[in-house]
Amino acid sequence: MTSGITLIAPAKINLSLHILGKRADGYHEIETLMAPLTLADEIELQLAPEAEPGTISFFCSDPTLPSNADNLCVRAARTFYEASGISESIKITLLKKIPHGAGLGGGSSDAATILRGMNELFKEPIPFEKLYQLAISLGSDVPFFLNPKPRWCRGRGEILGESISLPDWKLLLIKPPFPVSSAEVYTRLQATGYRLQDDTTLLNGISIFNDLAIPVFEKYLQLPILKSWLQARSEVAAAWMTGSGSTLVAALQKECSAEKILDLQKNIAAEFGKTFWIKETCLCSRSLQPVACSP
Q1: Catalytic residue among 41, 141, 170, 279
Q2: For residue 216, what are the contacts with CB-CB under 8 A and spacing of at least 6?
Q3: How many CB atoms within 10 Å of residue 29?
Q4: Choosing from 12, 149, 175, 279, which is the catalytic residue?
Q5: Rounded to two decimals, what is the model's pTM?
Q6: Is 141 an annotated catalytic residue?
Q7: What pLDDT, in 10s, does the model give residues 64-104?
Q8: Which domains does the chain have, with CATH numbers?
Q9: Under 8 Å CB-to-CB from 167, ≥6 apart: which residues?
Q10: Which of 49, 115, 160, 219 has the most other CB atoms within 10 Å of its CB?
């Protein structure tokens, strides 16, 4: 058996996000077009035979994230153990590159990647259909990341449509120096009487919109200002908020050069502050196959 593997856990963006209403189980019925990005966390899974059976050791490059049993990565590993009956100890090392509270799905991606990775490491004791059910139990976005491809997702996000082709856009992600709580956003949405936004942009035949923008923008007033500023730039084809925020996405014009992109990043920092996190990325088309570690 391989002693360890290294995997990538990609971020995602929502190109369209429509809230259809609240369900009897407390979740919201949604319809969303999601796509994975080249921006990704890196996860190493290593067997730890020196530890007590069933031990899960978790290490993360971001000290602000919890490392106890509440961490979604630890919960994913524990869920896998309970479902598989495997008790070999494991060490999880997470190199965090996706900011949290950003609407980029970093935590969900990490959890799904650990499920996939542990199944690979232990020679696939759990069939994909069962792995999918485990993913649902961990979070609404987690199933998407088991096999992340651009696709429509429905239900509470767990019903996955067929993968679709999207243009090879250059993207700029801009996150303010604060996270946004998804639970708070949905609470605010309910308080508005489900007043949904109608600011739709057509980009290469795809309707770009986000029904969660209003409850976020009404509290975090800098975000709609940033969105309008981006939309006025000649380098930007479209700008919108992804997920429940706080990240804004700018799809760049096809002819936008590297120099213009760098100038745009400098102008954002000058206009809105150097505490803003800015990252150039694009849609992900590379393989997510695990890479074996040296013994």
Answers
A1: 141
A2: 180, 185, 188, 223, 241, 244, 245, 246
A3: 14
A4: 12
A5: 0.93
A6: yes
A7: 888 788 899 999 999 999 999 998 999 999 999 999 889 99
A8: 4-162 (3.30.230.10), 170-282 (3.30.70.890)
A9: 204
A10: 115
